[in-house]
User: Fold these one by one.
Assistant:
Number 1:
Amino acid sequence: MSLPQSKPVSTVAPVPVGAEVVSVQIVGQAGLRDAQDQVAEEVPVALIYNGEPHVVMMATPSELEDFAGGFSVTEGIVASLYEIEDLQIVALPQDAAHVGGGFEISMRIPAARAAALSQRQRNLQGRTGCGLCGAQTIAEAQRMPRRVPAATPVAAAAVRRALESLRQQQPINRATGATHAAAWATPDGAIVALREDVGRHNALDKLIGQLLATHVDLAAGFLVITSRASYEMVLKASMVGIALVVAVSAPTAYAIRIAEEAGITLVGFAQPERQVIYSCPGRLLASTPVLAR
């Protein structure tokens, strides 16, 4: 479920949205040969609220409306998607020297929300691996999580089912080997929504934007992420009431503390045959004891 170290170079498969084909040279035992490869796209995406630039994120250019909505909610800019009164996405042209390009997403939000956002003085460039994009002080970086409501317990067998089907539902990563995924599974483990991006938190924002837009019951199901469970991933989950987070990779100590405060069941090192519970274990049910790492 983690990002692969290498992938076969081939153009047989169709190119998914969010990837592009480039020419490469391959060195092997038979010598040097020309080939083509699919790589993930990564472009600047500017988020603008009420005409004021807020932040520029490097992201995979797919499902950008979901990204804008999810980011706005999980960052506390708006309380719900209903407060986004208008949303426009504009593709910016790129010149012959590959300068420029990207997307601007302009949103109209209530004046009180825009005033509060202005006070936060967040207007800078975010990077692919950045989890605290825009935070200028330690206090801003350490936002308190929201306590999640009661949620439907999930059996370990359902987590196994979701993990077993996860890789097959990542078209961009299958083509490029370069993207993370965030997926939503029903209580029986069926994955019903998935979003990909070069940034792990971007993938999660895209998924949350989709789930909120389609009115999914976030108390009935669980989140699966292909990345590590870092602080901001757990915080974003708490902002929308997700009570069970399953990460393929490791959690951080801070993420575990945030999960405890929010009442989130945090599972790490998740593989079909084995999962490690780091916080609030009562929500994940196992017919046999869950092994410690």
Number 2:
Amino acid sequence: MLLSMTGFGEARTQTDDLAAAVEVRAVNNRHLKVTVRGTEPYPMFEADLEKVVRRHVRRGTVTVHVRVDRRPGHADLTLNADALAAYLRQVRAACDAAGTPEYAAPLLAGVLALPGVAPEARHGGSPPDGEWPVVERTLAGALAHLDEMRREEGRAMAAELLALHDTVAAELAAVRVLLPAVTADYRDRILDRVRQAVADAGVAVHPDHLIREVALFADRTDVAEEVTRLSAHLGQFADLVRKGDEAGRKLEFVVQEMGREANTLGSKAGDVAVSRHVFEIKAALERVRELVQNVE
């Protein structure tokens, strides 16, 4: 099954001591790139979180946002007594200086919220004991939801890619039908021109010259190899889409080869009708190329 490189997943876990929430967003990229944001210290643990991401994602730019709300423990309940005393003195002094000492009490009610009085606990070194397994489990849940979205988009892309495959195959079949008539039509046009020239100028043209001219044209416009190779690439393309497992890079290569054969076919085609079919082939391949860029 094909997997899209874009998607979104989230998960939450609640325990007695903390609430963990993880959001995962993925967009297309030729390689895997993981970025971690959120509650400390997890942005510094990007390598550990990337190991979890790699179990689910092989290509793409993945942004992981981790939020952890912890219940404060006794060790976290700290008060900066010096800062508190300094704020109290300054508030009272300012109110006395302004002649409004009655305002001191209401202002002092919010002093604990002032910077530095009751600083939040920081975990700069490592997550608190028992927290990492909860975050890892929550991340795995978010990645599972991401996979669901990627699989759903992958099914839709596979259906469209196979429909475009059928379009290219139908146009290529039409080219096969036209090719024998292209050389014959050219031969007939050459003969008509020669007959007209003979009639107008009274000159004679050796039949070998006509045969040589037609043979040169047939050689210049022979696209049998291009048609055969494009047909083979189409079969390989369909197999990769149906198989789907890590098909993105292989599909990119096959589509590149199909585009090369289509360009050669268009440049060598000596007939307007053939050129019209080649145009439709190239238009379908361009849409295929856009879709394949989003396949993992």
Number 3:
Amino acid sequence: MALVDGFGRQHDDLRVSVTDRCNLRCAYCMPEEPEWFPRERILSFEEIERLVRLLVADGVRKVRITGGEPLVRSGIESLVGMLAAIDGVEDLSLTTNGVLLDRLAEPLRRAGLRRLNVSLDTFRADRFAELTRRDQLDRVLAGLVAARDAGFERIKINTVLMPGVNDDEVEEIVERSRREGYEVRFIEFMPLSNGSWDPARVLSGDKVRERIEARWPLTPDPAGDPHAPATRYLFTDGAGAVGFINSVTAPFCSNCSRLRLTSDGHFRVCIYDNNEVDLKTPMRAGASDESLREQVVEALSRKTRGGALEIVEKQAALPLARTMHQIGG
């Protein structure tokens, strides 16, 4: 049973949130004093494995572990091992803020994690503390080194750029990432903060690319994945690559292949779609795999052409029932 929606889009990419909790407080992701889900509301590792296995049987090939901050989930390396062992998972990755990566990079690698994305919006300590409301930049930088030492290749840094906040660091971030062997993904500020977003806060990825090209010539990556959210460019001097996720100025909804499973067991077909399907309650009540699969297929059949397209057309954020840390990256 293929995971195809009414627009013919096939879904092979699953984002799995394992916790809503985080050790940072980035303003565009969560309130300063968030209310966490009760622990009994969170899926167990065994429940996550069951749902992932079910979706892999129907065509999912890429699995990304997210949060909140996934590394605050105790025993996360055990879950990595469980998911890595599922036949059909071709790409297992994880997005982290990097604070706990210095001690977990090696165990995660041994458990079968293949790729890492580290969210980092600045290399300046004072600005990091302001953006995240925590003074942890040294830990993040140590985590990046630990990940490289553990053997992770093509470590990606996810950077959200905001005018007047950190857009003056573009060249600095690129230069340091090239020097230290990381690959930056510049991400347009997305309307996920329930009230604080407006189009003026979006720095176009095309403008960022033009700034970078003025110093380091780029060429489109001929092996780029058309379903990937990032458009990837290679530095013509051979020193790595850079990517741009232009989710606001150039939505990629028409090629969307992503599904989401929240930490409390809700299936979400679009990051902007509040019509979630609760899989945890029936699963805990004894529902069969076939019954759960039918709910997944039914939810997918209702997927719209894409919330990002509505945002572009209306030039306004869509109301969200959850903040980003509750949805998953």
